[in-house]
Amino acid sequence: MWEKVDMFQGETAISIDDKGRLAIPTAFRDLVAGACNNRLVLTYNPYEPGCLWLYPESEWQKVRDQVIALPSAKKVYRSLQLKLVGAATFLEPDSSARILLPSSHRHAAGLEKRAVLVGMGVKLELWSEQAHLAQIRQSIVEDDVTDAMLDLRL
User: Fold this and answer.
1) Residues 6 or more apart whose Cβ sits within 8 Å of residue 63
2) DSSP type of residue 46
3) Structural domains in the chain?
4) Among residues 112, 91, 116, which one has the least CA distance to residue 103?
5) What's residue 32's pLDDT?
6) What is the tens place of the pLDDT at every residue in 97-153?
7) How many CB atoms lie within 10 A of CB 56?
8) CA distance 150 to 100
9) Which of 25, 27, 75, 148 has a CA that sits 20 to 30 A from residue 12's CA?
10) Residue 36 has what DSSP assignment?
11) Are 120 and 99 in contact (CB under 8 A)?
12) pLDDT higher than threshold 60 for residue 6
């Protein structure tokens, strides 16, 4: 079993071809092959527009089970279930380490030719270039800082 800590980290600018495929960056290929036997799950980021999430299958199963366990009678839970579980699709890299992104996911996230793949520990985030740039350019201001953040030694 793989360790969660520091599994995926770093960001890489990537291209998406005309068929909607992207090549998994070399830095992540061994992790994808070893951590999940080349099985990934793609779904929407329910919190930020312009971003999709890619989970190793084993990590996805934990997330899926938690989300499905929420009572669907509450509108916010139903929305989370729809965006995460309802939209989830399995992907396997081909022999060239490319994955095919469904057009529905690409269009919903505004992914075009250029994107950014970001390693975030147990998952990868696939950002449209514009949405990623907007996120990076946002500053964390003093009013946003929480008590937990004050203890960080950055």
Assistant:
1) 55, 84
2) S
3) 8-150 (3.40.1550.20)
4) 112
5) 84
6) 999 999 999 999 999 999 999 999 889 999 999 999 999 898 888 888 898 988 888
7) 23
8) 41
9) 148
10) H
11) no
12) no
User: What are the CB-based long-range contacts (under 8 Å, 24+) for 103-111?
Assistant: 103/20, 105/42, 105/44, 105/52, 106/16, 106/20, 108/44, 109/44, 109/45, 109/49, 109/50, 109/51, 109/52, 110/49, 110/50, 111/16, 111/52
CB 99 within 8 A of CB 24: yes
Strands (DSSP E) contained in 6-92 are 8-15, 21-23, 40-44, 51-56, 89-91
With beta carbons less than 8 A apart as the criterion, state whether 44 and 83 touch: yes
Please identify which residue in the block is written with the tokens 């068929």.
19
Residue pair 123/47 in contact (Cβ under 8 Å)? The answer is no
Q: How far apart are CA 133 and CA 56, in angstroms?
A: 25
The verdict on pTM exceeding 0.85 is: yes
Determine contact, residues 43/87, Cβ cutoff 8 Å: yes
72-96 per-position pLDDT tens digit: 999 999 999 999 999 999 999 999 9
Residue 68 neighbours by CB under 8 Å, 6+ apart: 81, 85
